[in-house]
Amino acid sequence: MAASVRQLVRRVIRLSHRNINATAAGGPCLPGCCWGPSTGRCLSDAAGDRSTHFGFETVPEAEKAKRVYQVFENVAEKYDVMNDAMSLGVHRLWKDILLHIMNPQPGVRLLDVAGGTGDIAFRFMDYVRSQQERQKQRAVRSNQTPSWQDISSNYSGENEDQDGLRESRAVVCDINKEMLKVGKQKADGMGSAGLSWVVGDAEELPFDDDQFDIYTIAFGIRNVTHIDQALQEALRVLKPGGRFMCLEFSKVTNPLLSRLYDAYSFQMIPVLGEVIAGDWKSYQYLVESIRKFPDQEEFKGMIEDAGFYSVKYHNLTGGVVALHSGFKL
Amino acid sequence: MFRNVLGRLVTETVGVHRYAKKASLIPRVTPSCVSVRSFTDVKDEAQQPFDTSLLEFLVCPLSKKPLRYEADTNELINEELGIAYPILHGIPNMIPQEARLLHKDTDSSPAPTQE
């Protein structure tokens, strides 16, 4: 017991030394700075082999996907628990806000990419179900004193109504089988009507063109090797009029909050990762990958470049999380 | 009976906002127990039916052409490119590298396909 505590303390000291250097270098993570992922690629092109960032490490592009896969394979079982512990439950609020802004109507089709354990898909199904209930209640309330003609048409038209309404569907797509397995187990426990699970690559989606009304990617796009390809695939599979929504960690604007957030990220989160999930490195990667991701404006530019219109973003929790939204027209 | 309690716990924790400390305790119980359950039900899960309504919009990620569901081998076949995507636990695996090539002699070794 004492030995493991000593080990933990030693690791914290060692890693905090590493973090001090890393944050000092990664601190001015402004767009256009040499740490930006786009310039990183330009530097390595000269060397002939394309490389990208994996947290604060530089790795060849081919390797990034494999390492990201391993990270999520390791954390899959404890993923939901860790989310609650790291964000103190606030991630639930972020996802709920996403659903409220999305405001899906019954009958729409959702594609949740990097959906992993299915948080967004579950919320989507619940939201649509409660919307349907509300609509039915409204219909009943407005129909309190029907005429004899209404009553007779209701008897004959009752069954047709339910078939005419297109059932809402949510498809959860993730590159990692383990995460989907955890999600599917959750679904089987609570009724999985209208939910589908597919293993697929965000850069090469196994879906036909113009199929989905809403495309969401929550806390997943920073793990994708080629973000622009993922954005183009998103544009392809969305119907015209479809909405792209992306929840992702972003840059905190307030300097005081930023310092607190950095301290929390680099000191607390890997420790929590070690204690709860037994995996320091995966959570180290997680906080580093957040720092490497472009900020709100730059990401907005990337979404517009992919061909989306009316791109906006909302800052949540002071910029810790940003919700980007765009439309395919 | 224990399973019902667990099932209800899972439903409630997923659907209701709780303070983090309480929330982190309850879900921690479920993953380990869920995995025990899956260990005993391994046979049932492997034979979970594949939802063919997915085929409406599921296509091959490489050629974007529709696929054919093959029930005996439980795979999704792309005739044109001659590859088959496996389905595990009712979840289709649409990663190109995980597909297998369909030779004329139906060789079942996993084959690397182009990205």
In short:
The complex is a heterodimer of chains A (329) and B (115). With 329 residues, chain A is an alpha/beta fold. Chain A has twelve helices and nine strands.
Give me the Rg of chain A, rounded: 22 Å
Widest beta sheet: strand line-up of chain A: 5-4-3-6-7-9-8
Instruction: Characterize the overall form of chain A.
Output: globular
The most extensive contact between chains is: A-B, 39 and 41 residues
Number of helices of chain B: 3
Distance between the termini of chain A: 60 Å
Beta-strand proportion of chain B? 5-15%
Radius of gyration of chain B: 19 Å
- Residues in helix, % of chain A: 55-70%
- Binned, the helix content of chain B reads 25-40%
Query: What structural category characterises the helix and strand content of chain B?
Result: alpha+beta
Helix-strand topology string of chain B? HHHEEEEE
Structure description:
The complex is a heterodimer of chains A (329) and B (115). In chain A, 57% of the residues lie in helices and 18% in strands. Chain A contains twelve helices and nine strands. Chain A has helices spanning 2-26, 37-47, 61-75, 79-87, 90-102, 119-142, 148-164, 177-190, 227-237, 255-277, 280-292, 296-306, and strands at residues 51-54, 57-60, 109-113, 169-174, 195-199, 212-218, 238-249, 309-316, 321-327. In chain A, the strands form two sheets. In chain A, strands 5-4-3-6-7-9-8 form a seven-stranded mixed β-sheet, sandwiched between helices. In chain A, a hairpin with a 2-residue loop joins strand 1 (51-54) and strand 2 (57-60). In chain A, helix 9 crosses helix 12 (296-306). Chain A starts with a helix and ends with a strand. In chain B, strands 1, 2, 3, 4 and 5 form a five-stranded antiparallel β-sheet that branches. In chain B, helix 1 crosses helix 2 (20-40). Chain B starts with a helix and ends in a 14-residue tail after the last strand. Residues 27-38, 40-46 and 105-115 of chain B have low confidence and may be disordered. The interface between A and B is large, with 39 and 41 residues.
